[in-house]
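Quick entry between incubations.
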Amino acid sequence: MHSRIDIIFTLIILANLLLLSSSRLGTCINVAAIQGLLLAVLTLATRTDEPLIQTSILILSTIVLKSIVFPQLLQRAIRDSETRREMRPYVGYAQSIVVGMVVLALSLWLGSKLPLPNPTISPLALPVALFTILVGLFLIVSRRKAVSQVLGYLVMENGIYVFGVTMVHESTLFVELGVLLDVFVGVFIMGIMIFHISREFDHLDVDRLSTLKD
Amino acid sequence: MILVLLLMPILAGMVAFFIKSDKIRRGLLLTTAFLHLGLTTTFWSHRPGPLFDNWLSLDAPGLLFLSITSFLFGVAAVYGVGYLIREESTPGAHSDEGSFFPNTAESVFTGCLLIFLATMTLVPMSQHLGLLWVAIESTTLASAPLIYFHRHHQSLEATWKYLLICSVGIALALLGNFCIAVAASHNADQPTTSLLLSSLVTQAKHLEIPWLKAGFLCLLVGYGTKMGLAPLHTWLPDAHSESPSVVSALLSGALLNCAFLAILRAQQICLAAGLADFGRNLLIGFGLISMVCAAVFILEQADYKRMLAYSSVEHMGILSLGVGLGGGAVFGSMFHAINHSASKAMLFLVAGNLLTVFKSKSVNDVRGALRVVPVSAALWVVGLFAITGFPPFGTFLSEFIILKGALAEGRYGVAVIYLATLAVIFAGMSSIMLKMAQSNTAPVLGSAHGVQRESFWSIAPPAVLGMVVLLLGVHLPTAIDQVLHEAAMTVGGSS
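Done. Structure below.
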């Protein structure tokens, strides 16, 4: 049981490292889509004690949103604005990987500190969730393109999802769907904003959005 | 009844997207706003019962913040209609861009405004932490298009920062929710599975402490971002200064309170679990940092809407400080929420009037306002005294109660910093705002201005708000007093 779930966790960690090391935005978006798919599999593997309909609705909406709709939206954004690569990130790719390793170690250490709610959960669950959240945050602050920031936000949401689906049992479908809906609308509006940014500025470099300051 | 209050603005908002006639749409906005206000007022005599297994219910803090929101929206709707009429004849007249740019379609603006009202109605009613999260995130989403009403570079930049920073912050709050759920599931013999506030509070003794602490921290940082507590406030001055003034008034007066309420809910659980000091010290810390940070940026501020935005950071700091101090200060904090909302909304609306005439947000471009727009400028000066806590305004009373609370708790250091920052901010704001109203040098821009005719739509709403702050300072009605005490009791206030 654990070994199967641990394979999923390992794949999620690998996806995170890929996200940190790749400069091609298209690849990054695909990796995030695969990560979304992994989340769906994770839901299937952990939520065995709940009504089937509830689980399947959740899994279905996760797959549709995280691995089809969001990637499509972002792919379209980079196509329209003709941004293929993250050119000069604030933190280089080699350094990003090093940061990723440090963050992974930190998450493993932190995960061992907090008491798990029940022993049946894989000990990897908490570290993986924390690692994914921190990688998402790191992507937001270390990348220049608006698309990369949205991607970072999505990865962070994925991390929180891992946390929720593994640690919190008996949560309410209604709230989970509400969360997904909010994230969806959020990404949708961010997509519209990216469209406006590329039209107004002819680029997607967020660091040049800097006229407002004290 | 709660459901009606919630569904009405949603429906009206959706309909507004499709109405072609400007007149009908504006009528719809006003009607919905006043129906909402009327319905909310009836809740004061007859509190509506809970709905959906207690997921939606209106307790004292909820009623307080719902009423603030509803009242501000009513006033803002009146101002907004006047604003939309002016924008129609001279698009972009409210900005210092100096060039023509399109506005977002009015139907989209009105629709988003109404849906924004609906989401802000849901926040104070939510008794379930998950639902509360969904509601707060949707306030961000509904208000983002409002900030981008004037389609130019600065507002785009402000909207992007607002959307991204707040979404990330609120994502942390979601993590906080999960942490609290984990804390609750530890209790082996009676696992609390739901994130209902009432059940969390009654079961609080059984919550796992480390997880609860982690959860509270995440919630505080997450919702604190949305509330504009320093150092998480970076989006706030941009968003509040770039959005149309009527939206700024709602963002500052109503939306920040919603996030504050969410933090109060978290503190409520902390108190019940016996972690009162943990939560209080954090709230005091964030409160003081916000006040000091605001004071630094208000001094010598060159943009008067940014100055107002920083003043919001200051007042959010005061609110958080008051709750952190506990005892009598909590009552002061609740009272201050009303006063701040009314006076800050008043100032933003007047700032909108000044912006229309002087076409600049720069302090240096606005001179001799008293001669050009006498009524607005007079309101501007009144607003200055209201926001800086001069007697006899309500703000003086509430700030004084918080000071008294600090001294009663023996926190003399806190009291000193509190008074010092209030003094600095008073000096900073009055030197900026009085210069704008009085100075005799001819206005740099548009020196041809004679005395301008000021329309009823732009004068009456801020005047009403100013009157409310004044009246609250002179006499606090017993009904309000009771609800304030009841609200203060839920977050550890003494009666």
